[in-house]
TrEMBL record:
Species classification: Bacteria, Bacillati, Bacillota, Clostridia, Eubacteriales
Region (Disordered) residue spans: 276-296
Protein name according to UniProt: NAD(P)-dependent dehydrogenase, short-chain alcohol dehydrogenase family
CDD domains per UniProt: SDR_c (cd05233)
A Pfam match: adh_short
Keyword terms: Oxidoreductase
Ranges in a coiled coil: none
Transmembrane segments: none
Length: 336
């Protein structure tokens, strides 16, 4: 898709962070933008922005895990703008940090339900409508750099994102005959408010977590995200990827090399000799190239200060398990 003017974009998580950056950039490209988000306060702020700009935009409150709401949202788009979207961007996501072995069913049901299930619901809802429209189009999802590696402190999130990446590749192949492109956007640290969800946005039925999550841990996470990529810059990367019909967008100058290095480990996993190489590599400090790429992904020089050092100076137990989990190693629990 190279011509955006007059077309319709539907963006989940579109009222803040990465999604709002996407809404801005595609609106400026001439699109009519539908912003879907679970937070009414964020929707109100986003719509105030577009009203001031005089740009065509419509807000829909949407829980991406709710299929009935998704179907109603799709109907509403057609009622408001006359037809189904040309561009579907599935960005809504949540995350929470803690040891994998401390994860509860609720941790998985909430995070995977939003990050993977929300994408499934978007695809199943809109793909048939886009095909029937008969005008091609494009589908994108804000996946994550977490899709490429193990997540010992983000197991539900990383697993969900890896699943989304594979799912999108399946659709990338399947939708070619219909002229519908697919793009997976895989950033690392983004300047966003995703940290708010673990306390403000987690549904009551999924409250049972094994992780130490407090206002202080989320303030620390906010200080990390403050260094992340600007959402508009990220959206520019996505727009170029859509224009180029590019499946995978790793939004960094070293992006292709980052992907290459991240995937090399699987070849080593596949043999005893390779496993030994991985063990030895783990004992070595990162190479100059690896440090450079980590700095690109995090948004600051990782050699200059430790991760999150701009946050609270005390140990708040970020990424730790709750202290009452008697099967978790004591070093991984917050015992204060």
């Amino acid at each position: 898709m190279k011509d955006f003017a007059g077309k319709i974009a539907f963006i989940t998580g579109g009222a803040s962070g990465a999604g709002f950056g996407q809404a801005q950039i595609f609106s400026e490209a001439g699109m009519k933008v539908v912003i879907a988000d679970v937070r009414q306060d964020h929707l109100d702020e986003a719509m105030a922005y577009f009203k001031q700009k005089g740009a065509p935009a419509h807000a829909i409150k949407l829980d991406v895990t709710n299929r009935e709401q998704y179907a109603a949202a799709a109907d509403e788009v057609e009622k408001v703008f006359g037809e189904t979207p040309d561009l579907l961007v599935l960005t809504a996501g949540v995350n929470v940090f803690g040891p994998a072995e401390a994860s509860t069913y609720d941790d998985y049901d909430w995070v995977v339900g939003v990050c993977f299930g929300g994408v499934v619901n978007g695809l199943v809802t809109f793909v048939p409508r886009m095909i029937k429209k008969g005008k091609g189009g494009h589908i994108a999802s804000t996946v994550s750099w977490g899709a490429f590696g193990a997540g010992p402190m983000t197991a539900p999130y990383s697993a969900a994102k890896a699943g989304v990446l594979n799912l999108l590749e399946s659709y990338f192949v399947a939708l070619k005959p219909y002229g519908i492109g697919v793009t997976a956007l895989c950033p690392a640290n983004i300047r966003s408010k995703i940290y708010e969800a673990a306390i403000q946005g987690r549904p009551e039925q999924f409250k049972n977590t094994g992780y130490n999550v407090t206002e202080d841990t989320q303030k620390l996470l906010a200080s990390i995200h403050a260094n992340g990529m600007d959402p508009r810059v990220l959206a520019d990367w996505l727009k170029k990827g859509v224009e180029n019909e590019q499946f995978l967008v790793a939004p960094y100058p070293s992006g292709p090399r980052m992907v290459q290095l991240a995937l090399e480990r699987f070849a080593d996993y596949a043999s005893p000799e390779g496993m030994k190489r991985l063990e030895e590599k783990a004992k070595q400090p990162p190479t100059e190239e690896e440090v450079k790429m980590m700095s690109e992904r995090e948004g600051y020089d990782v050699t200059a200060r430790p991760l999150g050092s701009s946050g609270p100076s005390i140990d708040v137990g970020f990424g730790k398990a709750k202290k009452d989990l008697d099967w978790v190693d004591s070093s991984k629990k917050f015992n204060k």
